[in-house]
Amino acid sequence: MGRRTPRTAPPAAYDRTWAGEARSAVGCAAVLLGLLLLIDSGAGTLTSWRAALWAGLAVLLLLVLWPARVSAAPGLLVARGPLRTRAVRTDRLVSVRWSDGVAQRLVLRDAEGARAELDPRVLVANPPLWRLLDEDARTSVTRGTLRCGETALRQVSERVDRETARGVFKVSGLN
Asked: What does pTM read for this prediction?
């Protein structure tokens, strides 16, 4: 039986950049579809089957590029992707680690075995979301459940502080 997402109050913080990233994903998929149809039509090889193939390829690109919608409430972080929703209890974290690769990911695991991945740039762009995660991670450290990941959290904290300071300097004209 699948794991259920815990129900809580409405999210206290959410990713404010999600809508723009979703629009970009749709735009990229639409441009790809348009170019493929244009090239195939120009070559005189466009058929309904080929158009369906190109549309399927564009949908596949959309699914790959679609951003996870991240929201948080006290004690809970939820990442909703195009195919599944992952929720993790942030006040019962067991580990936090970086998943290096083409796209960096922050992987959170809780004491119940739930796992959620998110792009660290989401936390950097949304300080309220970061504050909730940071407070709950400190609770996990205090309780002794967080065994692995304080370094990763410190790195995210430094990035958030650096970007916040850069934003303050930019707004105040000191940049």
From this structure: 0.80
Which of residues 4 and 55 earns the better pLDDT score? 55
160 touches 124 (CB < 8 A): yes
Answer whether residue 1 shows pLDDT above 60: no
Number of other CB atoms surrounding residue 38 within 10 Å:
11
Asked whether residue 160 carries a pLDDT value surpassing 50, the answer given is yes
Q: What share of the chain is helix, strand, coil (3-state, %, to 5)?
A: 55, 20, 30
The token pair at 135 is 């407070």
Q: What dihedral do alpha carbons 153, 155, 158, 162 form, nearest 10°?
A: -130
Residues for the chain: how many in total? 175
What is the residue extent of each domain of the chain?
18-65, 70-172
